Amino acid sequence: MICKRFYAKRILIQAVSLGAVIVISGCQSPKTALENLNASDLTWATYTSDKLNYSIAYSTVLAPSGSEHGEVLFKYGWGVPVRVRFTNEAEGKKTGAWFGNEPTEKIKLNGRNGEKFIYEHYEGPFGARTVSYVIEYRGKFLGVEFRTDGELNEIQQRMLDSFRITAN
User: Residue 134: beta bridge partners?
Assistant: First the structure.
């Protein structure tokens, strides 16, 4: 009886260990940092939100994850270097968006007047420097957000330049 328990416990430990290895190996961060990739060497596609009527070009090294509300996260490994956010002020303050920060400059996003914000965005204990380009849109705010330690990298800049509102 003791022998059966020992082997059952051993098999369980091995199965859990194998599962952990599979999960970790499948979720590893990419070997090359996004800012070290050359945008012209990458394949590009277009993400379109039918809900909010915008489009944005993105490198296929990023994995878009859209929401039912029209927002999208562009994932790279474990990170989210680019996000399109659609929010009102109350919800934006709860989620740590640009609200409460002073704009750094006036901008145009697809020909529309807006503001640029640079701030620390926190999700739990972790913070990331965020550069957001924000316009008023449909009674709320639409922002294209970039997580970056400095200026936008080549891929992020190309995405910002490609952003288009396709209808009102």
Answer: 115, 143
Assessment of whether the complete model's pTM goes beyond 0.90: no
In the chain, where the domains are located: 1-29, 34-165
- The whole-angstrom separation of Cα 103 and Cα 116 is 5
Pure H helices in 27-98: 89-94
140 in Cβ contact with 39 (< 8 Å): no
Q: How far apart are the C-alpha atoms of 163 and 116, rounded to whole Å? A: 15
CA nearest neighbour of 52 among 110, 113, 114: 110
The C-alpha atoms of residue 68 and residue 50 are separated, in whole angstroms, by: 10
At CA 112, angle to CA 90 and CA 73, rounded to 5?
55
> How many angstroms separate the CA atoms of 30 and 119, rounded?
25
The 10s digit of each residue's pLDDT in 29-79 is 567 889 899 999 999 999 999 999 999 999 999 999 999 999 999 999 989
Query: What's the CATH architecture for 34-165?
Result: 3-Layer(aba) Sandwich (3.40)
Q: Put the strands of the sheet holding 54-59 in their side by side order.
A: 44-49, 54-59, 164-165
Q: Which of 128, 118, 133 is nearest to 163 (CA)?
A: 133
Q: What is the mean pLDDT of the chain?
A: 86
- For tokens 């396709």, name the residue: 166
